[in-house]
Write a structure and sequence with these properties.
By secondary structure, this protein is of the alpha/beta class. It has 2 domains: about 80 residues, Elongation Factor Tu (Ef-tu), domain 3, CATH 2.40.30.10; about 110 residues, 3-Layer(aba) Sandwich (Rossmann fold). About 20% of the residues lie in helices and about 35% in strands. It is built from 5 helices and 17 strands. The strands form 3 sheets. Strands 1, 2, 3, 4, 5, 6, 7 and 8 form an 8-stranded antiparallel beta sheet that branches. The longest helix is centred in the middle third of the chain and has 12 residues. It is globular, with a radius of gyration of 17 Å.
Length: about 250
């Protein structure tokens, strides 16, 4: 049984890091886990979280509190915790490549695990980390440690550059060619960033709500150029050109 090693640690406003002692088998960046948040039936459904980091015997997730379920997790005491996974598809792991990571808000979470794995394969990593304000920046030093170049943006200019992730990405992609652009964040941010790739290939991790996480309920389905896909099992990682962005909720 997976075990929460210690109480969730606040790492930014409304954001908590949970470290779970768990032999989860093989995983890759971009995959997620589904957590049962209470012992009863309220809330009934599990909550999905991208894998933030993976070390021998430990899986870490980043939880943003937005409702009852995530609020309960933020207050969780150490001990047994019901988790299933890893689930879904992950990002492509390139070797000796120039890559750009672009994240917004809690969408930065899976990009940390990705950066760690890409560093191991000799990639040159540029990361654009977007947040609403200084208060919502979490674990910045960890990202800086893994990336060759780190660019911080905030909507209000309270830290790093003032502006949005798509604009920062556009400036880079106009002048530089990357072997892959990896994007995770709100749908509008991913759509705008993918549209400004200027020919570089793109992979995105969609943030649809996964009701069951295993493809039964189909509540996370999205429209793609290959028809409707269930994001929990066909994704959450898709190529940027395959997603029909106008069908995605903002």
């Amino acid at each position: 049984m997976p075990v929460l090693k210690e109480k969730p640690r606040a790492v930014a406003r409304d954001h908590y890091l949970l470290e779970i002692a768990w032999d989860a088998g093989e995983s890759r960046p971009g995959q997620f886990v589904a957590v049962r948040v209470s012992e009863g039936t309220d809330p009934l459904l599990r909550r999905p979280f991208s894998i933030f980091s993976r070390d021998p015997g430990t899986v870490s997730i980043l939880v943003r509190t937005v409702g009852k379920g995530t609020g309960l997790l933020a207050l969780r005491e150490p001990g047994a915790i019901d988790v299933i996974g890893p689930l879904g598809t992950g990002f492509s792991i390139l070797r000796d490549a120039r890559v750009l990571l672009a994240g917004g808000g809690v969408g930065n979470a899976p990009l940390y695990y990705l950066a760690r794995e890409l560093k191991k394969t000799g990639c040159d990593i540029t990361c654009i980390y977007g947040a609403r304000s200084r208060d919502f920046i979490y674990l910045e030093d960890r990202y800086r440690e893994e990336c060759s170049r780190f660019i911080l943006t905030t909507d209000d200019g309270s830290a790093g550059e003032k502006g949005m992730v798509p604009d920062a990405a556009d400036r880079l992609l106009r002048d530089e060619r990357f072997d892959m652009v990896y994007i995770c964040g709100p749908a509008a941010m991913m759509k705008a960033t993918a549209a400004r790739a200027h020919g570089s290939p793109v992979e995105v991790s969609v943030e649809n709500y996964f009701g069951c996480g295993i493809g039964i309920c189909a509540g996370c389905s999205i429209e793609t150029t290959d028809g409707r896909k269930r994001a929990c099992i066909d994704g959450p990682v898709f190529t940027g050109t395959s997603v029909i962005w106008d069908s995605m909720p903002d």
